[in-house]
Write a structure and sequence with these properties.
2 strands; mainly alpha; globular; sodium transport; Na/sul_symport_CS; 26 helices; transport; disordered C terminus; single chain; SLC13A/DASS; disordered N terminus
Length: 577
């Protein structure tokens, strides 16, 4: 009897060690990408049952949760938006609204890219907007060449050779880049290394295209504005990027009694932060590459009319190619607005939402319920009629085509991310079942002697550094099971540490391989790695500083961060020997 009692702690300790080993192996494979991320995510389903930590049935159930239903609904919307070119119409319209002053033009691209990234994946947004920005940058360069040619000739009324050259050459360059850079739609964060060969191919054909240093700097500025704003825009909504979705599902699973985190509450605290980061990044990038002339920017100063006309012309031509807005775009836009309104009004917090209509079943209807409802409508609402001609010559309709088809949805659905997230949830469940989470919390409890702001800063900087060399989903999946027990051990509201860490996971601005938008713009050949490192370092500092400002000011009263909540488990303050 005595020996059996002594064996129990050993058995428990063995499970903790075995789960720690599983976590170490999976984290190592994720960080090194020795295997594809989604393949590595399947290892917990193999290792946890073999170590006796969790039965296979329980592990399998972690691979499909509420997160996946929300993702399916969002991808239905994204598929329809991209199929009917609504995203391109929105981007061009927003750029046309801000005018063609170089600084405001850059802000227009950043704003439109950030807005689209709120609802589409960062990768798809960058891949769509970058060719438009490239065409505008080439128009600026050609317009400058035209000014030089005008000053060196005595002839008047000559044709605009700059625009003619651009129409043929630039179109070829864009098509060539589209063929060489085919991003995977959806929330794909697996990014291969960008080889120097690609850069040489891009640059070899462009040796004479930079007439001036300013022209080269303009191309660099446009590239980084698109890459960074697509990442910043994804911060503002739970569905904006996969890391937000992973955090929301992990948090709601670990703390089911907390119903404070939903689409509306996330947008309320993240939108001001993203807006400040976007504006400061715009100022920083503008100053870093071209210098920030306040007089020219805000008082319009002296402008080069030819360059501005060239930019306005190419944007106008791109918009006119879309033609008048179509029925399919209108329906998609209406469904998009309805989905956003239903998300915001489900449980806004300051007033009862529509979820109060189902008070008998509190917490049953979630954001995924809304996403699925709207997502199904895309398969039901007809986009166009299919007709045939009868032997008598009469044209009759025999069927209709929906807004999106299942085949189109499948091509957009990021199944690799769905598996990756499932693997993260399985790991988190394994940490709980084995007692590893509690053990980590006890070991980290001495950190409670540090000021809370310092703990938040250290965790934010740690995550920001890690996400530069590892994919964003892998980073957030690894750190969440560590930071949650830490918050519980030092008796701090878990949101106080998890929110800034989740936001900082997206701050992968330094390297081309850090995230797909960086890789896409880098493949255009205008940038060197050192350009991205220098510019990205400033954006990283801005991002972490704004997140720290937000978590110490306007986010505090929203979630009562200074109080340890009742929905969080009461952790023992005793540390293990």
């Amino acid at each position: 009897m005595k020996s059996s009692i002594q064996a129990l702690p050993c058995h428990t300790t063995c499970h903790e060690a075995e789960c720690a080993y599983t976590l170490f192996v999976v984290a190592t494979f994720w960080l090194t990408e020795a295997l594809p991320l989604s393949v590595t995510a399947l290892l917990p389903s193999l290792m946890l049952p073999m170590f006796g930590i969790m039965p296979s049935k329980k592990v399998a159930s972690a691979y499909f949760k509420d997160f996946h239903l929300l993702l399916i609904g969002v991808i239905c919307l994204a598929t329809s938006i991209e199929k009917w070119n609504l995203h391109k119409r929105i981007a061009l319209k927003m750029v046309m609204m801000v005018g063609v002053n170089p600084a405001w033009l850059t802000l227009g691209f950043m704003s439109s890219t950030a807005f689209l990234s709120m609802w589409l994946s960062n990768t798809s947004t960058a891949a769509m907007v970058m060719p438009i920005a490239e065409a505008v940058a080439q128009q600026i360069i050609n317009a400058e060449a035209e000014v030089e040619a005008t000053q060196m000739t005595y002839f008047n009324g000559s044709t605009n050779h700059g625009l003619e050259i651009d129409e043929s050459v630039n179109g070829h360059e864009i098509n060539e880049r589209k063929e060489k850079t085919k991003p995977v739609p959806g929330y794909n964060n697996d990014t291969g290394k960008i080889s120097s060969k690609v850069e040489l191919e891009k640059t070899s054909g462009m040796g004479t295209k930079y007439r001036t240093k300013k022209g080269h700097m303009t191309c660099k500025l446009m590239c980084l504005c698109i890459a960074y704003s697509s990442t910043i825009g994804g911060l503002t909504t739970i569905t904006g990027t996969s890391t937000n979705l992973i955090f929301a599902e992990y948090f709601n699973t670990r703390y089911p009694d907390c119903r404070c985190l939903n689409f509306g509450s996330w947008f309320t605290f993240s939108f001001p932060a993203a807006l400040i980061i976007l504006l400061l990044s715009w100022i920083w990038l503008q100053w870093f590459f071209l210098g920030f002339n306040f007089k020219e920017t805000f008082k319009c100063g002296k402008t080069k009319i030819v360059q501005q006309k060239a930019c306005a012309e190419v944007i106008k031509q791109e918009y006119q190619k879309l033609g008048p807005i179509r029925y399919q775009e209108i329906v998609t836009l209406v469904l998009f607005i309805i989905m956003a309104l239903l998300w915001f009004s489900r449980d806004p917090g300051f007033v009862p939402g529509w979820s109060a209509l189902f008070s008998e079943y509190p917490g049953f209807a979630t954001d995924s319920t809304v996403a699925l409802l709207i997502g199904l409508l895309f398969f039901l609402i007809p986009a166009k009629r299919l007709t045939e001609t009868t032997p008598t010559g009469e044209i009759v309709a025999f069927d209709y085509s929906p807004l999106i088809t299942w085949k189109e949805f499948q091509s957009f659905m990021p199944w690799d991310i769905a598996i990756l997230v499932g693997g993260g949830f399985a790991l988190a469940d394994g940490c709980e079942e084995s007692g590893l989470s509690k053990w980590i919390g006890n070991k980290l409890s001495p950190l409670g002697s540090l000021p809370i702001w310092l703990i938040i800063l250290i965790s934010s900087l740690m995550v920001t550094s890690l996400t530069e060399v590892a994919s964003n989903p892998a980073t957030i999946t690894v750190v969440l099971p560590i930071l949650s027990p830490l918050a519980e051990a030092i008796h701090v509201n878990p949101l106080y540490i998890l929110i800034p860490s989740t936001l900082c996971t997206s701050f992968a601005f330094l390297l081309p391989v850090a995230n797909p938008p960086n890789a896409i713009v880098f493949s255009y050949g205008h940038l060197k790695v050192i350009d991205m490192v220098k510019a990205g370092l400033g954006v990283n500092i801005v991002g972490v500083a704004v997140v720290m400002l937000g978590i110490c000011t306007w986010i505090v009263p929203m979630f009562d961060l200074y109080t340890y909540p009742s929905w969080a488990p009461a952790m023992s303050n005793e540390t293990m020997p």
